[in-house]
Every structure is written in C-alpha cells, then in structure tokens.
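User: quick one, fold this
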Amino acid sequence: MRRPDSGRDDQPVRSNDPPEADLHETDPFDEAATAKAVIDARGTVTEWSEGAHRLLGHRPSEIVGRPAAALLADGATALSRTGALDPATLDPAALPDRWSGTVTLLHRNGQRLDVRLLAHRLTTDAGATDWLLVSPLARTHTGPHSDGPQLSEAEFMQSPCAMAIYDTHLRLRHVSGDMESLMGLLGDDVRGLRLPEAMPAPEVDNIERHMLRVLETGEPQHLESSLRLPGHDREFAWAISIAPLWDAEGRKSGVASAVHDRTRQNRAQQRLLLVNEASTRIGSALDVASTARELADVAVPALADFVTVDLLPEDPRGGAEHFTGPRPGQVRLRRVALRSVLEGAPEAVVEVGDISYYPDSSPPAEALFLQRGVMRQVTDSSVARWETMDPRRAAKMRAFRFHSHMAVPLRARGTILGVATFSRHRSPAPFELDDLLLAEEITARAAVCIDNARRYTRERDTALALQRSLLPRALPEHAAVEFAFRYLPADSGAGVGGDWFDVIPLSSSRVALVVGDVVGHGVQASATMGRLRTAVRTLADVDLPPDELLTHLDDLVNHLAAEASGGQAPGAAAEGAGDVGATCIYAVYDPVSRRCSLARAGHPQPAMVTPDGTVSFLDLPAGAPLGLGTLPFESVEVELREGSVLVLFTNGLVESRERGLDESFAALRTALSHPAAPLEDICDNVLKALLSGRPADDVALLLARTRALDASQVATWELDCDPAGVAQARRDVAGQLAAWGLEDAVFTTELVVSELVTNAIRYAQAPIQLRLIHDHSLICEVSDGSNTAPHLRRARVFDEGGRGLLLVAQLTRSWGTRQGSGGKTIWAEQALPVADGVGIWDVPDVADI
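Assistant:
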C-alpha cells in the first residue's frame, strides 16, 4: 500500500517502524505498527494511536473529539462491502459485529489514501456501542526474521487444518484457507495485524500470551479455549497447538499455530456432565416441589435461561389428571417450580403455586397432547398469536426477547404428570435437536423422582390420616392424674411411624398410662399400632396387671407376625416378628393407695419427678420387645407422693445423631427439673431441649401428675363369712352415705351391697372386704379370697337364684371384676346426683328383672 510522505505528495510514505530488537531487551509488540482508532456510536473519534498518526499524519490532539467523517475523502465513502455508510449515521443494531473493506481516507496534507480497514463492534460497560478500526502499516525493510519462513501462499492455503504463521513481533503473515473460514476474514484483511487486533477478545489475549511464551522459551504450547466467532450465535471450543519456527541458522523466525475444532466433543462432554449432575441432584428428597426445583436448578444456566415446571392438578379421587391423547381446549396446570438466569425471575407470568391455562397451540399443551418433546422458535407470528390469547405472556416475550422454547412432558410409569418448559432469551443460540434430547433425558429422570415423591406423599398422608384417626385427639379428665401429651410425626425422610399413647380409666378411680412404639414406618406400622392400641384398651378393661397385659400383648404381636409371614409355621413367625415388633410400657396408678404398678417390654425406662424437683429414672426390668416371646415380663410397684410427675416417652425423644443416649437422658433430666410448672410448659421445655428440628423418628411424650383421694373419701369394712353380717353391712353403708350427704343413693347402694356381699359369703371364701369410694362417682367394691369370677346370666322363671348380678347391672352405670394377688374384687359404679340435689338414679321395678 502506498502512503504519502508528510513533506511531499508524490512520494510514498515510509515506515517509521523501529529496527528489529532482541525479544529479551525490548517489548516484542510494536504498537505503532498498527493504525488504530475508536469511533463512538455518534461517529466521533474517541481514541487515536501512534500508528494512526503515522498513517494519516494527524496527532491525537488534532483528531480526538472530531467527527470521523472528516477523515473520509469526499465526506463519505464505503465503510463496508455492502454500501456507503457514514459513521455519523451508523445504526449499531443494523450492523454485524465485524466488517472489513477498503476505505478512501484523507491524509493531513490532503492526499487520498486507499486503506484496508477491519472494524470490530465493542460494547462498553454502560451498554453503548463503539467501533475499533485497525489497519496494519507496511514495513519498508525486511529483516531476516521479520516475515517468517518463505512459503508459497498457494501451498500454505492448502493446509489440511486451520493454521497461521506469525513473525517475531507476533503479526500475522500467513493464514490457511481453513483459518480464513474460521476467522471469517481473508488473509489480506488480517495480514500484518496481531491476533487481538484481528479478533479482539480476552480469550484471544490469552492465546497471544502463549505465543509469546513460545517465542521466549522455544517450547511448544498447547491450550484449549472457547470463543464466540463473529457471525455465530454460540461459542466454539478450540484445541490450539503453538510451536516455534526456526531458520536455517537455528534462530527463532516466528511461531505457527494450528487450531482444531472440538466444539462437538465439548458439547457432548458437557451434556454427559449435565446428565450425570441431574442423576445426582434430582430426587434428593421425597418431595414433589423440591424435586421440581432441582430439575430447574440443573437446567439453568447449563441448558436454558428460564425453566418452568408445571404439574397437572391432583384428581379429587386421587392421583393426577391423565392424558390419553390429543384433544382440543385449554390445559390446566399448576406451577411448582421456576428458575431464571435473572435474579427474581422477572420474566415469569405465573408464580409458584398458581394455576394457569395454556391454549392447545402453546408448546406446553402441544407437548402434553403429543406426549413427546417439542421445540419451537419464537417468531413475530407466534408472539402475535399469544397477543390474542394471553397479552401478558406476549408482553414478557417481547420485553425479554425470548427466541427459543422447548416443552417436554413429565412422563413416568406410563402416566403424564405435567410438563417442563425450557426457554432462551439471553443465550443467543437457538435450541438444537441435541438440546431437546438432553432436555428429554433429564426430564425423564425428574419425572420418575416426582412420581416417587408423589406416591410417597400420598402414602404418607394416608398413614398420617390413619394414625391421627387411631390416636386420641383429646383425653378425658381423670380424678387420679392431671396429664399432658405431645405427639410429633417423623420428618418426610423417615416416614410415619407407629408410636402411640393412651390414658385409660380403670375401675375404682384407677388409671392406666400406656406408651408404645411399633417397629417400622408407613401405613403398615400405623395399622399395626391401631390394632395394638385397641388390644391394650381391651385387656385394660379386663383389669389385668401390667405384666400379664404385656404377656397377652406379646402373644398378639406373634400372631400378627405369623400373618405378615404368610401363615408360616410358628417357628417361622418368630423370624418375621421383627417386621411387626413393638415396644411398650404400661402403668396402673391407684389414687387411693398412691401406688403405681409398671412393666415394660423393651421400652425406654420412665422418669419420675417428685414434688421437690428430684428427677429419677425408674429401674424397671427391661423386658424383651413384644413379639419375641422369650422371657416373662415383670411388674414393679412404687409409691408416688401426691403431685409427682410420671414421664413416659418413646425412643424418638432420646435417640439422636447429634448426641449420645447418656447426654440425651441428662438433657431430659434438666428439662424435667421444674415440677411445679404447668405440664404443658414442661412438655414444651422437653421438646425444645431434646429436639433441634423435625425428629427423625416419631416422638410420643406423656406426662401425668398424680393426685390422691383423701382418707375421708374412702370407707372400708372387714366382713365375716356369716349371712347375718349382710344386714350390718347395709347399715354401715347407709350411715356412711348419710355422712357424705348422699342419702338419695342409700336405697340403690343397699341393694348392690346386699347382692355382692351375699354372693361373696355364699360362693367365695375369707377374707371378705367391703369398700366404698366417693369420687366423681360412687364405687362399691367387695373383695374375697376366691379367684373364681362371677358370670352374668338370665335366670329362668322358676329359678330361686341367679338374679343378683343382673340386678346389680341394672342398678349401676357399670360393673366388673378384677383379679388380685389374694383373690378377686367385684366392683359397681354409680353416678352421683346432679348439682341441684335431684337424684338421677332410675331404680327399676324388681318385677321387671
């Protein structure tokens, strides 16, 4: 290229390049060897290099701030191959990121120069558009190493890969045909330029640093780099090899670089990594919403800029709505998750939890109807259709410049659960078929996890409903104890367990306290818990002592284990007992004697808190868990001071990964050391001290503060085995009732006492005892030394006896018998009169009995 000298118009401009210098003594880059200028969007020159000064003669102070059009010959000329463009009127959005061409410029002395320019569009931090214009300056001398090795241009252009050769100043001298195609520029466009001047980008700067290292060390360099080329909407991955070039005398004459496109391999590797990440991240919790969020998190930004997950609403009859094939109309979906590359997901129209309707022409509806993934480009016509169907979505699509969508149905086990939608608006590349295949792969994994979570949630809800229906919602007040309880189901990971508790009223103002824990979780554990709770109530109604009750309960668990094992032999039932095993503690408290009898079957030992605040754990024989049937159970009887607190709980309260068992019992002891506090507050303190969050296992906690009946409320008489003593017993009872102010109850009570005492004298043996208890009801007890239990029967017309117990059953609210260590006790309970003194006993006519 001929350039004018600043002194004469008819002489070529000579280069002012400095002589060649040793790379280790001076900067290898001669910045003045390239004419550079920056023009802003208004066409004003903002930067002017020394090379530009050499080319056109203008100093920076003379040209910076002036319109670039002043440099053009005739005021305007071609700035691109496509037509005449004036820098002052350039529309940045209408131009490509890079263009090149020959421009006629004016030298400072007025001479016209045809200059080959390469222009790059730059985006400033403020979002404005600048243009970087570069043009290499021709050298007037040819040093021995300045242009690299002598190689035929035609021969080099035939290189089978993208190659380039640089001189010792790292300026391009030769490019192969494949390299021209890669750069999108002809060799004449870039010859004499440094690589960052031909392709400005941080990644290119890094490549040049490796080339400089090759020049300095003489050692080849290999690197991988990603770069988005002008004219392309996605990044390419390159494997680059750089090697030194030597002349015949063994001196470095330049560097050569070879570039290999690894984009396809890189994308395949990234897809495999994304699939692997999806397999490890999606489905970490058995929760539908969490799984849907994990799907969106995996896909953004690796696959899409905006992802939504919508599920078909639950069918009221259970399960999700099903799609059996294409059908017209709108699709109703519930948003369960979304994720965006933008903070706060401002492009979302539907929020999580909301219901939305999609027309049958939309990608989500189309994917559901076709039951396969669909990929659609956003066009003006598609946005116009959305404008009529949903103006809000159309406005969002325009505002955020959505350009590509994919919709993939969530399908698991032959059922369509919903649809995942993937969109791009920041990534310039549209979705490709490989992207759709990847989306279908990770969505299929997520669908199975969502279906598992949904099935688990449904089973857990069923188990919880069953468990709540079997557990007491409220316990009736009882004269013997004041109680409070807490029940916490396990977290979603462990599932619903089989813990239970109960407070059971017994005869003679006594009360039974029970806490149990069935092995396992889920519906089966809840069902087993219900059967055991019912069995305990039934056995408690028979007034069995704790050790005998647990023995019968152990037999029941063995039967359940046999059923669970498919009705195998009794020996095999023991092996299956572990699947239906349970632990239990059963206590009976008598407020008259203030004594409590307890037995446990593999259950944690209970705590007792005395009124002065002393906390101790009762040393009960542990017993084997229910279902093993190996050792007998033992009862222990303790005397409790009035106001003592008995604490029963399941192992979920004290067993924790965060602390050892001894540490848990110590924390429980501390939390219980405030006996005067309300029981509800003590329950809260215990849970706060021992549970840091949702428990890993079910927790049942039962607190009972004992009460005692005053001696004045109990009357006891020892009777002889003489029929004449029946009359005296009636007189004693009448006198005691009068002392209690219960004259209205005398007639009925005398009849009951007569029948019970007569039966004891006639059919039983000494010792015989009569006891009256005045509590919330009136209780009459007759104890004897016989273990034979009476039976209620209907006497025939001409029978002389057999009507006593029938008469007692008709006169009282309830009656029964219980076995003791020295015989049995028959008891009958009557309701007390109402507060206004009007009796409520309805004494039947004896002729009707």
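User: anything notable?
Assistant: The longest helix spans residues 433-470.
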